[in-house]
Amino acid sequence: MNLAELAALLRQSRGFAHKRDISDVVAALGRALPGGARDLAQAVPVGDDCAAIPDGHGGYLLLAIEGLVEDFIERMPWFAGYCGVMVNVSDIYAMGGRPTAVVNALWSTGMQPADRMLEGMAEASARYGVPIVGGHSNNRSERPQLAVAILGRASRLLTSFDARPGDALVMAIDLRGAYEEPFPYWNASTGAPAERLRGDLELLPRLAEDGLCSAAKDISMAGAIGTALMLLECSGVGATIDVDAIPRPEGEALPRWLGAFPSFGFVMSLRPDAVAAACARFADRGIACSVVGEVDDSQRLVLRRGPERESLWDLRRDAFIQAASLQAQHV
Fold first, then answer.
1. Which of 201, 256, 274, 310 is the most exposed place for a label (fewest CB within 10 A)?
2. Any idea what the Cα angle at residue 255 is, between residues 290 and 282, rounded to 5°?
3. Is the pTM of this model over 0.90?
């Protein structure tokens, strides 16, 4: 597969499609608010992994929610429940915070598969040390559904809005896992020691508090490239990414890997003088970390592989997750 074919595959992927839907939802909500899009962006810019609400003491309350796709729940209810907690925990750490508690809302036909979803949530709650403190249930639903929300705190934020031209674009991914077939979920969590999981995630708030990083996102359903695109869009910048520099498990095909959703994966924009120290912290914990490109002011994401170059997205002409009415406010 050449680079043009790879770019086309990414643009047509399910992960990209789900993220692009965000702009429609944000635009509709903005139209419904009395003050329009300006009201929607008052508390925190739209596009981050969590809402960040000043706590009045120099820190922030963090709030996030995740919903799970129906086919995943039907085929893997236990792992879907586990992921409902895990991905929320990752969102909190991606903002430089630490999680406090989660709540859930689930729909099921009786206790099948509600019981398996709850077992998965309970396991992740114990392993990540984040209590489940309440929720909502409906056991008379025609189809299973699950959403999980989380609360956390941060003393110093990592955001999607602080990448700058000249920064190094860095990716850190735990490769000690395997796919949860047939889905693109790279599971490096359920078989790992709980203490290690918590220590690995603690790297993110420590990087923020030590002033080594100010811009980050956790790699989501859009994969490593799509997540980088969201970060670049929020910051009003562009980049060229060397796809072969992205940390990848030995023997795994690149096209599938670029659409993978890893249980531990982060995209960071680092000032050049912070790269060595930040990458060393991940390496010390056995996590693959490498510079994959450089941030520029082009507002375009270009893919590179050897001598090939391919423009994946031009944010000046086509928004990715941001509604057009909000995009100018955040650039």
1. 256
2. 20
3. yes
